[in-house]
Design goal:
Length: 341
C-alpha cells in the first residue's frame, strides 16, 4: 500500500504525469494562440516544437544563473513553490485517474484546502520573498483576484458535486453482504455519477452555468489574458515574477502550469464524468478523456487570443459578473431542485 502510494505520488498521476501534462498544456496554448494570431509559436525543439516547454524548464533549472537580490530569500521562495506543487499532486489522488483513490465524506473540502488555500498562499508567498516594489504591486493584484476567483471556482465546482451527491443518495447501492452508500460531497464518487445528470433539463442548465463560470475563473487562476493582471509586463515589468530567475523561475512556471492542468482535469471529471460514457480504462474512454481535455484547453486558448489585458478594477468586476455570480446562482439552482426531487 505504501509503495503504491509512493508510485502514485511520484509517477502517475503524480509529479511525472502532471508535469508532462503541464508541458503539453503550455505547448498547446502557445501553439494554438500563435496560429490564431498568425505567428509560428514553438517550432525548433522536438516535432512541431512539442519539447520546447520542457527544454525551457530544463534550461532555467540547470543552465540559467539564479540572480540573488539584497533582502530576498530565494530558498524560502523555492520551498513555497515545491509545497504548492506538492499540494496539487496530493489533490490528484482524489480522482478516479489515480490507482490509489482516496474517497471520504466531504473530501471536497480537502480539495478546497489544497487548491484553494495552499496553492494561492504558495504563489503569494513566493513573490513576497522578493524585495521589489513591482513584486509587491503584482502580489497585491494577485490577492485582489484570489478573493474573487477562488470562491467562484469552488462554488462552481460545488454544483456538480451537490447534484451527484443527491443522485447517489436517492439511488442506493448494495454490496454483496451489506448496504453501501456513496460518501457525500466526494470528488471521486461525484465524478463517476455526474454523467447521468446531464439528461435532466434543470440539472443541465445548472451545470452549464457553473461550467461557464468555472472556465472564466480558471482563466484568471492561470493569469492568462485578459486576467494577466498580476504580471502586467507593460506596467509592472513582470509583476510577481520580476525578481524570479533560474531554478526559482522554473519552479514558479511549473507550479503555474501544473495548477492549470490539474484544474482542467478536475473540471473534466467533476463536470463531464471523465471518460463517460465509456469505462475508465478502455481505449474509447482514454480517447474521450483526451478529447474533453483538448476541448476545454482550446476554449481557454481562444479567450486568451481574443482579449487584451483588463485593468485591475475591470478584471475584478468581470470576475464578479461572469464567474462569482453565475457560480452562486448555479449552486442555488441545483440545491433548490435537489430539495423538491
Amino acid at each position: 500500500m505504501i509503495l503504491e502510494l509512493i508510485v502514485s505520488a511520484l509517477v502517475f498521476p503524480g509529479v511525472l504525469f502532471i508535469s508532462a501534462l503541464s508541458f503539453f498544456t503550455e505547448w498547446y496554448l502557445r501553439k494554438s494562440v500563435a496560429h490564431m494570431q498568425s505567428r509560428m509559436g514553438p517550432t525548433y525543439v522536438g516535432p512541431i516544437g512539442l519539447l520546447q516547454p520542457f527544454m525551457d524548464f530544463v534550461k532555467l533549472l540547470v543552465v540559467k544563473e539564479e540572480v540573488k537580490q539584497k533582502h530576498s530569500i530565494i530558498w524560502l521562495a523555492e520551498l513555497f513553490g515545491v509545497l504548492g506543487i506538492s499540494a496539487i499532486v496530493s489533490s490528484l489522488l482524489l480522482l478516479p485517474l489515480s490507482p490509489i483513490r482516496i474517497a471520504a465524506d466531504y473530501d471536497f473540502l480537502i480539495y478546497v484546502y489544497l487548491l484553494g488555500v495552499m496553492v494561492p498562499i504558495a504563489m503569494v508567498a513566493m513573490s513576497l520573498c522578493m524585495s521589489n516594489p513591482f513584486v509587491s504591486a503584482g502580489a497585491s493584484r494577485l490577492l485582489s483576484m484570489i478573493l474573487i476567483v477562488e470562491p467562484a471556482f469552488f462554488a462552481g465546482m460545488l454544483t456538480p458535486i451537490s447534484i451527484a451527491t443527491h443522485i447517489s443518495s436517492s439511488t442506493p447501492v448494495f454490496c454483496e453482504e451489506a448496504y453501501c452508500r456513496s460518501p457525500p460531497y466526494s470528488i471521486f464518487y461525484s465524478s463517476i455519477t455526474i454523467g447521468s445528470a446531464w439528461s435532466n433539463f434543470v440539472y443541465a442548465a445548472a451545470l452549464i452555468t457553473a461550467l461557464a463560470a468555472v472556465i472564466v475563473s480558471v482563466q484568471a487562476k492561470a493569469m492568462l489574458n485578459p486576467f494577466n493582471i498580476p504580471e502586467a509586463e507593460q506596467e509592472l515589468i513582470a509583476g510577481i515574477k520580476t525578481e524570479f530567475s533560474g531554478p526559482l523561475l522554473a519552479i514558479f512556471n511549473l507550479l503555474h502550469n501544473v495548477e492549470l492542468s490539474s484544474s482542467i482535469l478536475f473540471i473534466i471529471y467533476v463536470f463531464l464524468g471523465g471518460p463517460y460514457p465509456f469505462r475508465h480504462l478502455s481505449i474509447q474512454g482514454v480517447l474521450v478523456l483526451v478529447a474533453k481535455y483538448i476541448t476545454i484547453l482550446t476554449l481557454v486558448a481562444v479567450v486568451r487570443a481574443l482579449f487584451g489585458r483588463f485593468r485591475v478594477e475591470q478584471g475584478v468586476w468581470i470576475l464578479i459578473k461572469y464567474s462569482l455570480i453565475p457560480a452562486i446562482a448555479a449552486v442555488a439552482m441545483a440545491s433548490l431542485f435537489n430539495l423538491y426531487v
